[in-house]
Design brief:
The complex is a heterodimer.
Chain A: E1 6-10, H1 19-32, E2 37-41, H2 63-69, E3 77-81, H3 82-87, E4 100-102, H4 104-112, E5 116-119
Parallel strand pairs in A: 1-2, 1-5, 2-3, 3-4
Chain B: E1 24-29, H1 38-51, E2 55-61, H2 82-93, E3 97-100, H3 101-106, H4 112-118, E4 129-131, H5 133-142, E5 146-149
Parallel strand pairs in B: 1-2, 1-5, 2-3, 3-4
The chains are: A alpha/beta, B alpha/beta.
Chain lengths: 120, 151
């Protein structure tokens, strides 16, 4: 077996269907197998970073809590697309997770630096 | 990568798999038979890879892709039956058709064992098999290129 780095690119709004949580579940299992894992949030998935989410009202898991738990599973790096934030007026919000903001060019480099790229 | 990466998305350091070198593919299917074309693309890719001498490590069905394994699904007469095509692929290549057990049970795709345990009825078509996410990770670690087919 090889160690292969995995980049998960999440684009779906965190409460649209179950993809967001399921995709993170797969990444956590990969991390448990000691694969180097990174998350990149794009498009409507950036809403998962907003504070004061209450998934329990919808009978769902809270997306921000799932992201918060990632470092406990050795997923150290959470990145977010700067353009997606800007398009949604979120450049100045308080990001308690301190996700690394990346330009499209930096995202290209991030993709190139990983062995495997997963989509949601 | 999506099902149709544009040439510009592939960097020179990572050439697209070449027909000259046999590759060992892991395919991940996120799409139902009816949503978009992801499931059909995955099947055609798998058939083409096999035809060209490549090996298929595993096809892993995740998210709504688990619906590909539903035995109770019936296609209209004038449309192709994707389930039969997956079954033929498994018969001709021996590839494992692995279905994520967690994603499957929330969508009503149960094998005989799960159906008995949960007191429901079985809906999983053979030779699809329920599998844990760990099996996907093992395939990814063992295998060559890993391609995801979304909607």
């Amino acid at each position: 077996m090889k160690n292969r780095s995995i980049l998960l690119m999440l684009r779906t709004s965190p409460y649209r269907g179950v993809r967001f949580g399921e995709a993170l579940d797969a990444l956590l299992v990969a991390a448990a197998f000691e694969q180097r894992c990174t998350v990149l949030l794009l498009d409507d998935a950036v809403f998962a970073l907003l504070p004061d989410q209450h998934g329990d009202v919808l009978g769902r898991r809270t997306a921000a809590k799932l992201l918060n738990a990632l470092p406990d599973y050795e997923v150290e790096r959470i990145c977010v697309c700067e353009e997606s934030l800007a398009q949604r007026g979120l450049i100045n919000f308080v990001d308690t997770l301190s996700a690394t903001r990346l330009t499209p060019a930096q995202q290209t480099a991030l993709i190139a630096a990983h062995d495997i790229v997963w989509n949601d | 990568m999506g099902s149709n990466p544009t040439p510009s998305a592939i960097s020179p350091e990572r050439p697209i798999p070449c027909d000259d070198v046999p590759m060992n593919f892991t395919l991940i299917v996120h799409s139902t038979p009816d949503a978009g074309g992801g499931a059909h693309s995955a099947l055609r890719f798998a058939e083409a890879a096999h035809r060209n001498g490549h090996h298929l490590q595993q096809v892993f069905f995740y998210h709504d892709g688990v619906m590909n394994a539903l035995a109770s699904r019936v296609s209209p007469q004038d449309e192709s039956e994707l389930l039969t095509a997956w079954q033929s692929l498994a018969a001709s290549t021996g590839v494992q058709l692995a279905v994520c057990i967690a994603a499957a049970s929330r969508r009503g795709v149960l094998d005989v064992g799960e159906a008995e345990r949960l007191e429901r009825f079985a809906t999983l078509a053979p030779p699809f098999e329920l599998a844990g996410l760990g099996q996907l990770i093992e395939a990814v670690m063992d295998g060559g290129p890993c391609i995801t087919f979304v909607d």
